[in-house]
Amino acid sequence: MAPPELLAKAETLVEALPYLQRYRGQTFVVKYGGHAMGDPDLARDFAEDIVLLEAVGIRPVVVHGGGPQIGAMLKRLGHESRFVDGLRVTDATTADVAEMVLGAINKELVSWISQAGGRAVGLSGKDSRLVTARKLTRATRDPGSMIEKAIDLGYVGEPHAVDRSVLDVLTAADMIPVIAPIAAGEEGGTYNINADTMAGAIAAALGAARLFLLTDVPGVLDAEGHLLTDLTPASIARLEADGTITGGMIPKLETCVAAVKGGVDAAVILDGRVPHAMLLEIFTRTGAGTLVRNGG
Q1: Predicted TM-score of the model (pTM)
Q2: What is the CATH number of the domain that holds 177?
Q3: Does 7 map to a domain?
């Protein structure tokens, strides 16, 4: 009789079979960020997971962040960062530093995927005008007069248009696109884009089966700290209204809602610090994060 550990591996493969069949030929867009990016072991695990997805017939597209690394470089240069609603106010110096740091992260991630046996190609939104940006605007309300004032965030943008053609060429050739969240505006200029927002826009343009946001928390938690595994735009609105969802989770869920309303089958918020969390979510019955799907 086969050893128990080998039987357990065989049972795991059998459990994964229906999911392998369901997702073969589908596109997954994965936003990779958070503190997992600074851990070589987790980076290696992530790269292996991405290569495994491609090997079983899924088409992965990676969008990466780099906020902590950008902040660290600005600090080294003596350039102070200022944030509004979680967004870094980006002057010309900060924009240059962001593009430089994100470019280095991009090539490092391409290297990790290559070492794991994949064929990855590094891009930014500028390449082949993959993403065209427009300036992001924010307003704040004066508590005394209640008059709204516009806030100038500098070179912070949001996706205005996505041209998927270069991604179609790469994925058809079994190559894995790795995208930095930098894009040009309609009339030139370089804009830094939030990586979650960039990933959501690309996922919608590709009609992806899944959008994964890898972050530093297990997912969306209820008031008692239990993981909420299945949400819809309506339930998210209720949880936001009653104060269950607050802070940085709100823009992540807004990205998920926009993606599923834009044609993505489902979006998932996962803890990127957990080894192989994405595989646990995709190929097991229980999953590993918070899934957002369209519905009531």
Answers
A1: 0.89
A2: 3.40.1160.10
A3: no
Q: Could you give the CA distance from residue 39 to residue 101 in angstroms, rounded to a whole number?
A: 17
Tell whether 4 is covered by a domain.
Answer: no
Q: Tens digits of per-residue pLDDT, 63-112?
A: 999 888 888 898 899 888 777 766 778 888 888 999 999 999 999 999 99
Tell me the per-residue pLDDT of 120-133, one tens digit each, with 9 for 90 and over.
999 999 999 999 99
- What's the distance, CA 123 to chain centroid? 15
Q: Are 151 and 139 in contact (CB under 8 A)?
A: yes
Domain with 67, as residue range(s), is 24-293
C-alpha 116/C-alpha 42 separation (Å) is: 13
Buried b (16+ CB within 10 A) or exposed e, 267-282: bbbbbbbbbbbbbbbb
Domain presence at residue 3:
no
- Total Cβ atoms within 10 A of residue 81: 13
β-pair type (156-162, 190-193): parallel
Strands 230-231 and 290-293: parallel
How many domains does the structure of the chain reveal? 1
Hey, is 207 helix, strand or coil? coil
